Amino acid sequence: MRNNLKLSWAMLFLILILSSQVAFSQGINSSELIKNAMQYDGKLVTYSGEAVGDVMSRGKFAWVNINDGDNAIGVWMSADFAREINFLGNYKSRGDKIEVIGVFHRACLEHGGDLDIHAQALRKLSNGRIVSQRLSIDKKNLTLILLGILMLIWILTSSRKK
Amino acid sequence: MILKPAIEDLKIIGFYLGKVMLGLALTMFVPIVTGLCFKEINPALDFMIGIEISVLLGLLLLKICHTDKDLNWMQGMIVVSLSWLAAMVLSAIPLYLSGHYSSFLDACFETMSGFTTTGLTLAQDLDHMSYAHNLWRHLGPFIGGQGIAIILLSLFIKGTAGAFKMYVGEGRDEKILPNVIHTARFIWIISIIYLIIGTLALGIVGICIGLKPINAFFHGACIFMAGFDTAGFSPQSQNIVYYHSLAFEILTIVIMIIGSLNFNFHYQVWAGNRKEAFKNIESKTFFISVMLTFLIVAIGLNQMGIYPQAIAFFRKGFFQLISGHTTTGYMTVYAQQFISEWGNLALVGLICAMALGGCICSTAGGIKMLRVGIIAKAFKEDVKRIIMPEKAIFVEKLHHIKEIFLDDRLARSALIITMSYIILYGIGALIGMFYGHPFLESLFESTSAAANVGLSCGITSATMPAALKITYIIQMWAGRLEFMSVFTILGFLYASIKGK
Are residues A90 and A142 in the same domain? Predict the structure, then answer.
């Protein structure tokens, strides 16, 4: 009976702590996180966006920068999570859109004061893709027209010299 | 009586401007080659269009304004002023065609920010920009930092008299070697040697921190060019935050400091005169100034209690201070954090550091250390005069490469330029406040633009009013050219209208 009471108290305590943190676990954007960093410091947040640049492996962990359209925020995640990311955003590809649930740090003590998120869970919302590079006809035509004008000037100038 | 400029003046100005345009067109082949290497066809076409328009305008000016005459002082200054404006517009063409800028004005803002080694950016969706366009953004500071007109013309120009006038017009008044063309070439050589060493060092660190080798060296080259030339551009939207690495930040600090030192000082050290580092008034003033402004920033940050760890204090507080003082503008914090977390005292310390700037005859902006040193010496001399007997004679000297007597003319010249900078910072702040921004934020952004720093507290964005964008463009331009060329072109325009 006494043990059950202790367990109930412990459960209640855990629920209270989690509820205060999970209050912020609805999706949140980067601007809100950066602007109100003090308010969200140490809280569990849900953040989603496109994985961009490089997966920077650091031993059993990795840094992945996730851009939600306003800003990119560095997410510190296990190498296993990082391996789930197939596409990274750059000129030639759109990165995987991922959602992370993790602890937000305004000035992370582990990472020299960086504003970051330590991922506890990761979910891929959509797969990235290679962006097809089609030759722009307008640009090609403009290049040729300007080249024609340049040639004309060159011919006119050289014929006058003669 | 004010004399109206003659047709001959316009012809000479047009002729040299045409040469600058041709020189600029040549530099655009670098991103074309990059684009082709990375199979980026449309970006390569953007630069092809940029080259064709530049060559077309350049050839027309050369043809219409053909002359064999050398430049006089007025013409040299105007060629410099117009060269920077022409380079801004022509270089903006490929950037605008990239689709990463919401207007041509934004692209012009970006190129002026690059050439003036400022580093404020209006690029959108930077994380998806092509290698070719990104390289062009970073090449801008590398060309502008050395001086657009003098560098491009050192390829074409025959006489050295005209070149010297443009060298002075670009805010440089110290010749390292007797011939100004040789000086310009020395600056190029020293910059390229540092570029190779810096790119290798940053590339190796980049690989160690997990970047792909190709990205590591590309980022290394970009970060070096923008760091050494005190511009602060970065290939990714997060700036230096992207790398999450202490080693990368330390290396960047070293590059920023090297870039903000006088080229003449580099020459002395390279020539074996290492004592110069300890004797030169600029290096001494720079050291004292960094210490004092860091003290202010440190007290401010300590009051706010936002970085309780020493390492965080170094990576955020000290890094930002060096970035501001060297007028580079690299960021290890997000722009909004300056306002929401740093507090007024730390911001004031950072604004002071930005306003003071780096060394003369470097790529740094701001008032500059030599002028600060001269003003401090002059002040000390005046205080001594008050304290000492009336008949006492004072001879104040300063060491800058050689021993120089501190006379009134030197002090007056330093004070005039300093006052001009302070007025420029103030005007920008007033315009910022006119658009509804608080005083400190307006002053921060204005100082950052006029001192060619590039740190932002969030005002600079694609959505800011066009008038504010134009204000910052003018501030970057005037601040980089140190006013003389800008005053000359204003006088020229006045004479064209009112002259007889």
Answer: no
Q: Is residue B160 over pLDDT 90? A: no
Residue of B nearest to A76 (CA): B244
Nearest-angstrom CA–CA distance, A59 and B388: 67
Segment A36-50 mean pLDDT: 96
B236/A65 CB distance under 8 A: yes
Q: Which H helix or E strand runs over B147?
A: none
Residue A22 in this model has a pLDDT that exceeds 60: no
- Whole domain around residue A151: which residue ranges? 136-162
Closest CA to B249 of B310, B191, B322: B322
Within-domain flag for A11 = no
Give the total number of structural domains in chain A.
2
Work out how many domains chain B is built from and give that number.
1
**Cβ-defined contact of B309 to A142 (cutoff 8 Å):** no
Cα of B188 to nearest chain A Cα, Å? 31
pLDDT in tens, B316-344: 999 999 999 999 999 999 999 999 999 99
Assess A111–B contact: CB distance below 8 Å, yes or no.
Answer: yes
> Which of the four pLDDT bands, split at 50, 70 and 90, describes residue B25?
very high
Choose among B53, B316, B336: nearest Cβ to A113: B316
Range of the domain at B34: 1-173+467-500
ipTM for the whole complex: 0.88
Give buried/exposed letters for A13-30 (b at 16+ CB in 10 A, else e): eeeeeeeeeeebeeebbb
Residue B34 in domain = yes
**Does residue B310 form part of some domain?**
no
d(CA A51, CA A66): 5
Q: Are A126 and A57 found together in one domain? A: yes
pLDDT in tens, B269-323: 888 888 888 888 999 999 999 999 999 999 999 999 999 899 999 999 999 999 9
Q: CB-based contacts of B154: which residues, under 8 Å, 6+ apart?
A: B163, B181, B184, B185, B188
> Cα–Cα distance between B108 and B80 in angstroms, integer?
17
- Please judge whether A53 and B244 are an interchain contact, meaning their C-beta atoms are less than 8 angstroms apart: no
- pLDDT confidence band for A16 (50 / 70 / 90): very low
Are A41 and A116 contained in the same domain?
A: yes
Residues sharing a CB contact under 8 Å with residue B370, sequence separation 6 or more, in sequence order: B262, B281, B282, B285, B359, B360, B400, B414
Subunit contact A116:B244, Cβ cutoff 8 A: yes
Q: What is the mean pLDDT of chain B?
A: 91
Q: Are residues A31 and A67 in the same domain?
A: yes
pTM of the model: 0.91
Q: What is the pLDDT of residues A102-135, one digit of tens each?
A: 999 999 999 999 999 999 999 999 999 999 888 9
Query: Is residue A15, in this structure, part of any structural domain at all?
Result: no
Tell me, yes or no, whether B226 lies in a domain.
Answer: no
Q: How far apart are CA B423 and CA B430, in angstroms?
A: 10
Q: What is the pLDDT of residue B496?
A: 83
A68 and A143 share one domain? no
Q: Given CB atoms, is A133 within the 8 Å cutoff of chain B?
A: yes
Do A116 and A147 lie in one domain? The reply is no
